[in-house]
Design a protein that fits this description.
The protein has 187 residues and is α/β, with parallel strands linked by helices. Helices cover 37% and strands 22% of the residues. The longest helix is centred in the last third of the chain and has 24 residues. The structure holds 5-O-phosphono-beta-D-ribofuranosylamine (GRF).
Length: 187
């Protein structure tokens, strides 16, 4: 069975979609959740699902102890799902081609430092764009910059608010992120 590690620091709705999807398929298990926020809601999901978790800070995320803990999980993929920090070179070098991220827009549009959540959706609405969507991509040393694996689109409605657009984007994420992971695991 494949092992997946999730890095997440927010609500964890994507983490939950991934956990539930692979509980059903039996093809992979989420072995560890890594967060930089001790009070993140995603950790309640970890507790309910009996998934071990680790809290990292700016220092410990670079240390060999974390690399050792991750290596012990033998992850087929490290999946970022609402993790806002840059991934240090030490992790990129230890897990080449194995770290992926999801971004709530059609990269290269609306990516980069500080572009997350409502900042992204407000930029789409301010730009009067007709569509938005999601991007799953490999992680490299820059924000939201690695090779794109999958994009899925949705229409922006004339009366959309940042919240309604976020809801449509989340629905796309919850459907496509687990399935993209499944696709990568079977390559
Ligand atoms: C998602 O919209 C994802 O695109 C972005 O962070 C958000 C995380 O949401 N990278 P959640 O915590 O999974 O609900």
């Amino acid at each position: 069975m494949h092992s997946i590690v999730i890095f997440a620091s927010g609500k964890g709705s994507n983490a939950n979609a991934i956990i539930q999807y692979f509980k059903r398929s039996g093809q992979a298990k989420v072995a560890l959740i890594v967060s930089n926020k001790a009070d993140a809601a995603v950790l309640d999901i970890a507790r309910n699902e009996h998934i071990p978790f680790l809290i990292v800070d700016k220092q410990s995320i670079k240390e060999t102890l974390l690399i050792d803990q991750l290596t012990e999980c033998k992850p087929s993929l490290i999946v970022l799902a609402g993790f806002l920090w840059k991934i240090p070179d030490s992790l990129l070098h230890t897990f080449p081609g194995k770290i992926i991220n999801i971004h709530p827009a059609l990269l290269p549009l609306h990516g980069g430092k500080g572009m997350y959540g409502h900042h992204v959706h407000n930029a789409v609405l301010t730009g009067k764009e007709k569509e938005s969507g999601i991007t799953v991509h490999y992680v490299n040393e820059k924000y939201d910059d690695g090779n794109i694996i999958l994009q899925a689109r949705c229409t922006v409605q004339p009366n959309d608010t940042s919240d309604t657009l976020a809801g449509r984007i989340h629905a796309l994420e919850h459907y496509y992120y687990p399935r993209t992971i499944e696709f990568l695991l079977t390559q």
